[in-house]
Amino acid sequence: MFYYKGAFRETDNVIYFKSDVSLAQNDVVLFGEKKYFIESVEKEFLLLQRVGSIVSVSL
Predict the structure, then answer these.
(1) What pLDDT is stored for residue 21 in this prediction?
(2) CA 45, 41, 1, 51 torsion-angle sign
(3) Containing H/E element for 4?
(4) Quick one: pLDDT at residue 10?
(5) What is the rounded CA–CA span in Å between residue 1 and residue 54?
(6) How far is CA 19 from the centre of its chain?
(7) CA gap 59, 50 in Å, rounded
(8) Euclidean distance between CA atoms 23 and 14, whole angstroms
(9) pLDDT tens digits, one per residue of 3-50
(10) C-alpha 24 chain-centroid distance
(11) Contact between residue 14 and residue 5 where contact means Cβ atoms under 8 Å apart
(12) Pairing of strands 45-51, 14-19
């Protein structure tokens, strides 16, 4: 189990959560209906950015 602290750019909001997998930069995490892009990771601290929508494409 991995424990993380996440912060949002330009706000004072911080969230604490746990994950079954290790998270890395450029991953997207889902919290209910909200999606967040991980801009950077430093130890267990994540800088998050809200994602509006994710589009599926085929090659």
Answers:
(1) 93
(2) positive
(3) strand 2-8
(4) 77
(5) 27
(6) 11
(7) 26
(8) 17
(9) 999 998 778 889 999 999 999 999 999 888 888 899 999 988 999 988
(10) 9
(11) yes
(12) unpaired
pLDDT at 54: 67
Contacts of 24 (CB under 8 A, 6+ apart): 38, 41
Q: How far apart are CA 33 and CA 43, in angstroms?
A: 26
pTM for the predicted model, two decimal places: 0.74
Amino acid letter for position 41: V
Using a 10 angstrom Cβ sphere, with 0-12 exposed, 13-18 middle and 19 or more buried, the burial of residue 47 is middle
**Residues belonging to the chain:** 59
For 58, residues 6+ apart whose C-beta sits below 8 A from its C-beta are none
Backbone angle region of 52, left / alpha / beta, with phi > 0 → left and psi within -120 to 50 → alpha: alpha
